[in-house]
Write a structure and sequence with these properties.
The structure is a homodimer. In chain A, about 40% of the residues lie in helices and about 20% in strands. The two termini of chain A are about 20 Å apart. In chain A, helix 9 packs across helix 11 and helix 9 packs antiparallel against helix 12. Chain A contains 14 helices and 16 strands. The longest helix of chain A has 25 residues. Chain A has three domains: about 80 residues, Arc Repressor Mutant, subunit A (Orthogonal Bundle); about 140 residues, ATPase, nucleotide binding domain (Nucleotidyltransferase, domain 5); about 180 residues, ATPase, nucleotide binding domain (Nucleotidyltransferase, domain 5). Chains A and B meet through helix 2, strand 13 and helix 12 of A and helix 2, strand 13 and helix 12 of B.
DNA sequence: TTCAATTACTTGAAATACTGGACTTACTAT
DNA sequence: ATAGTAAGTCCAGTATTTCAAGTAATTGAA
């Protein structure tokens, strides 16, 4: 429930609600007749006709032909058409800025990549973003009026109400407002949110969201975070800081203190960072492990990828390290399942590149801790989008606003 | 979002929404003028007048006099009036059935207590409930038409959509439908839900809910559970099984396997049951502890209360046992804070009777694991209602339906 | 004391969005 | 061909909103 909902409502509000619902239905069903909408939504036929006419006029829906008759006039099939409007999405990473223009269906028009200039501070990154946005508009050959907004995925704690980025360790930001800064140079509506939540939104709009309305999107990379979707809506918590999954304590007795002073947290033990660190700390007694080999004998070159690769080759030490991490993952996901009772958990990020070995262990370890009455109910899925997950999420940040008629109209 | 919301909406839908919001505002503010409602809600003055008239006609609101003028016509003050309608609430416990009739403001009219007959199975408990309900109506001297419904708090997994109780270990029920059974003998609307959720609802309607809209209500008793309130609405999850807090793994390395085969779960280590069991298991090496004394030398008579009492008296072994449990609590609540970002966590149940020693340790242990950026933001509060928390919750189950115009009107 | 200004609430008219019945269009089955 | 069935449209009726204007009660300053 946003601030909007607590305001008084008038007649146009319910039209908007019905429009949103009709559009959602059409988008989800690929092809759909007006009559089918009448049946599924409980609205009257005239109302549906009028709403559909409006959607067609707005160029969000097109007629794509006729369906089979069942003993009467054949239905005219409707389809979502997202090819008339465009959005910009930016994945603002600590090393790379990735950005793209896409249409509302998520088809990329242009793509740009740029090294993030961490040295220059907040102003420098803002000017990089402005530069990227301008370049994208230019290269896409679109008129600015055809672009409905800019969505950004930012690493850090984002307060969704006032647009403040409360804290971002990677960029070393505290209480900065990206929107006011960017708005000084860019006339388009600007939206941003935490990386994990944005990635989850991407799944909601273009990925598993077509099947599930209650799911959690976990980023398993160098760091760990989670974006939570409840009833098809992002879950923020009180300040917008919900889903701090990486800082969950999964092994309180562990003596290792990771970065940020966290002891026994999932991130310090089972992230890309955590796996690499654990290997570095303990390899002393396992000089014959393949890991050191692959790292060219240099401790500092050990990465999570090397550990996983060696585990796949049945290196005993690598297997131990990997198993420890996967135990932590099992406990972490178990907590999500018991507390949120989701339909699915979608996992993205570098660790998913390990492939089936990762998911297999994960499912095994979840079963180990499971609450027997909820057996096998939760789907554990890889993200549909691989490395593009966050960028597609950033695009979806704007698209979801369009689908809810919060921009353009 | 319930099934209702996915249906097409018409004008009366938004009228209902506005009525709910106006009533909520009046209830929360004790005294309020129409003009103040206009300002706070953004509705037009005529609309507010009409809605208030309707609420007065429904006997949910009364005028209680005039406020001070600030240079114009003095405002007529409105107040919530919950004295015209009544509800029945039942706390269906494994040992005791506690039930009460109250008005909509939560004032008890009559109260009944009865031993639960666990031996007789499902039918016997149903007939006990029917008996309790009939006796309550009789003793309250009310006409059945004045009672708006019956609310029950049930221990177990309740599927809120179809009313099935999927699983209840204490009663040994699997997939039973209490509503269809009770409806055969009782004409009133019947509602029920999981104990923890019901207790949370009680806090929402009559307790901390006046101050917080995002909070979690944790039951810390012989067992452990949590009811989650998000944006002033109960959070169910996919099947209605969200908040299975007691089964959270807080010490995966612990070798003890508690009831139900759970290893390292919060409930097996830190519930009333868990604390007593831990004392029983380890007292062998601490024969001189006061615990054995208070338990009359009988291992089986050791309870959590005895352990806590001894800890207060600085018994070393009792302190150890208590500290272990409190460490687990710290980790568990930490998980809730990081995943849900709530405004407050309200704790009810037997362990809170330990008093300040419990809450002090709790706050200390949460700080130990905290994510520094969210420092001290979460309120850790005892329940406002003590032993009545669940019973008041059961009453609130119906009251919340009335306040949302889902019954009576 | 009087009366304009202020604040609170009420009434009536216009606007908006839904519903449901009657009607048109278009195809199927016999 | 003709009756039957389903899809889609038109139009009057209903409910609820807001806007604009009007009434009511009090303050405060000439």
């Amino acid at each position: 429930m946003t601030a909007r909902d607590s305001k008084g409502k008038d007649a146009s509000y319910i039209n908007r609600l019905n429009k949103i619902e009709v559009l959602k239905l059409i988008r989800e069903s690929e092809q759909l007749s007006r009559a089918a909408i009448v049946k599924r939504m409980g609205l009257s036929a005239p109302t549906v006709t009028r709403i559909v006419d409006c959607l067609i006029k707005d160029k969000l829906v097109i007629m794509t032909g006729e369906g089979d008759s069942t003993g009467g006039r054949p239905p005219k099939l409707l389809q979502f058409d997202g090819t008339h409007d465009f959005v910009i999405g930016i994945d603002l990473g600590s090393t790379t800025i990735r950005a793209a223009v896409s249409d509302l269906e998520g088809n990329f028009i242009t793509e740009i990549e740029m090294q993030t200039d961490l040295e220059g501070g907040f102003e420098k990154i803002c000017s990089q973003l402005v530069q990227v946005i301008r370049k994208l508009i230019l290269r896409s050959k679109l008129d600015e009026s055809q672009i409905l907004g800019v969505g950004l995925a930012v690493a850090g704690l984002v307060n969704f109400e006032n647009g403040m980025i409360a804290y971002s360790p990677v960029f070393n930001w505290k209480n900065v407002n990206l929107r006011t800064e960017l708005s000084r140079h860019i006339a388009l509506p600007i939206f941003y949110d935490n990386v994990s939540l944005v990635t989850a939104l991407g799944e909601l709009v273009h990925g598993v969201g077509k099947e599930y309305k209650n799911f959690i999107c976990v980023n398993a990379g160098y760091g760990i975070g989670a974006g939570i979707i409840i009833n098809g809506v992002p879950f923020y918590g009180n300040h917008g800081f919900a889903g701090e999954f990486g800082h969950l304590i999964v092994d309180s007795k562990n003596s290792y203190v990771g970065k940020g002073g966290l002891r026994g947290s999932l991130e310090s033990l089972a992230s890309g960072y955590g796996i690499a660190e654990n290997a570095k700390r303990n390899i002393g007694a396992h000089k014959n492990s393949k890991i050191l080999n692959k790292a060219n004998g240099n401790l500092e070159e050990i990465t999570a990828k090397i550990v996983v690769d060696c585990a796949k080759e049945n290196d005993a030490f690598a297997n131990d390290i990997f198993d420890v991490a996967m135990d932590c993952w099992g406990i972490g996901l178990d907590a999500l399942i018991k507390l949120f009772d989701p339909e699915a958990i979608v996992i993205s990020g570098g660790l998913t590149k390990s492939g089936e070995i990762f998911f297999k262990k994960l499912r095994e370890n979840i079963l180990k801790n499971e609450f027997k009455q909820l057996k096998n109910e939760v789907q554990i899925l890889p993200s549909s989008f691989g490395v593009d997950a966050t960028l597609i999420g950033a695009l979806s940040l704007v698209i979801s606003k369009v689908l809810q008629f919060e921009v353009k109209f």
